[in-house]
Amino acid sequence: MHNLAGHEGIDPHELLGRARSDARGYGAEIVTASVTAAHRADGRWLVRTETGTADPLRARALVFATGVVEELPEVPGLADLWGGDVVSCPYCHGWEVRDQPVAVVGSGPRAWQQLLLLRRFTEDLALVGNGPTGLERGQLDHLRRTGVAVHEEPVDRVVSKGGRLYGIAFANGAVLQRAAVFAATTRRQATELPATLGCEVSSAAIVADDEGRTGVSGVWAAGSCARPSLTVAGSVGHATTTAIAVNNALIMEELELAPELEPQSQSQSQSQLR
Ligand SMILES: Cc1cc2nc3c(=O)[nH]c(=O)nc-3n(C[C@H](O)[C@H](O)[C@H](O)COP(=O)(O)OP(=O)(O)OC[C@H]3O[C@@H](n4cnc5c(N)ncnc54)[C@H](O)[C@@H]3O)c2cc1C
User: Fold this and answer.
1) What is the CATH number of domain 73-184?
2) How many CB atoms within 10 Å of residue 163?
3) pLDDT confidence band for 272 (50 / 70 / 90)
4) Which of 16, 89, 196, 225 gets mutated to test ligand 1 (max ligand atoms within 8 A of its CB)?
5) Dihedral of the CA atoms 250, 251, 254, 260 (nearest 10)?
6) What is d(CA 260, CA 256) in angstroms, rounded to the nearest whole number?
7) pTM of the model
8) 189 pairs with which residues across the strands?
9) Which terminus of the chain, N or C, has fewer Cβ atoms within 10 Å?
């Protein structure tokens, strides 16, 4: 992966492994299981996982950090190369394909945005819509004027050789050789759980403020599930801010239960924490 200061080119699994090991060092327990249900009882969240153990996990706060799923355009062979020569983010992977033949596969506003970004890196750029591109006349004129080839003819499949991308084969038998494909993906939430709990979900994002607070008391959302276009660095930043806000909220909750404190000193603490 790219675009994370100090970790250029790191294998994403290694980064995840290091992050988990760091968390364990602070005493965190990591349960590797899908969360299937959560509900509130007696001021606590009870969280159930697919392991189906009798005892649910108990928590004072619930933080979704569940990310988003990127749906690929339906083109045979595209999914096989996803995360390798097929990617979606020009900010993360554009530099690596500079001056090489690149295609955007897909249609609509996301494809348009990717083309504008990729034009900074390569002059050999094509839009492959596998049908109508969904772009306006002015946008198509702009692409033609700036040398971007536009293909609306049906695609047969994405062709790979030895696990690497070779090109895009059209139904008419022509093959467009490419070094990389940027897929115009559609994002969606990875889990229905936030919506089930009453969180508003809009444009594939859990609606949450800059500190991760959702509209449901005690439920927070951090990283790309709340801000789907964030990269790893941005997700880590949002999660850090959310963690601080959650911790502050828990401290305030404890202070509200402290009988010896006057309401005035509680509100003073609140302003100092934020
Ligand atoms: C192909 C590809 C390449 C990318 N390359 C880069 C790159 O080079 N640099 C970069 O900065 N960004 C890159 N990104 C973007 C990057 O992956 C995201 O910005 C980042 O992963 C967001 O982190 P997150 O923690 O918010 O979500 P995620 O990393 O998506 O983590 C969410 C986790 O929650 C889990 N989850 C979901 N539902 C449940 C549930 N019900 N119970 C339990 N667990 C659940 C998921 O399985 C997942 O492990 C890339 C993305 C893709 C798809």
Assistant:
1) 3.50.50.60
2) 9
3) low
4) 89
5) -170
6) 10
7) 0.93
8) 68
9) C
Residue-range domain boundaries for the chain: 12-68+187-273, 73-184
What whole-number distance in Å separates Cα of residue 84 and Cα of residue 119?
Answer: 20
* 4 close to ligand 1 (CB < 6 Angstrom): yes
CATH topology match: 12-68+187-273 vs 73-184: yes
Ligand 1 atom nearest to 36, measured from its CA:
41
- Backbone φ and ψ for 19, nearest 5 degrees, come out as -65, -40
The neighbour count for residue 150, using CB atoms within 10 Å, is 15
**pLDDT tens digits along 167-207:** 999 999 999 999 999 999 999 999 999 999 999 999 999 99
Residue 263 has pLDDT above 90, yes or no: no
Give the model's pLDDT for residue 270: 64
The pair of three-digit structure tokens given for residue 266, joined into one six-digit string: 């509680």
Q: Which of 68, 93, 231, 241 to mutate to test the pocket of ligand 1 (most atoms within 8 A of CB)?
A: 231
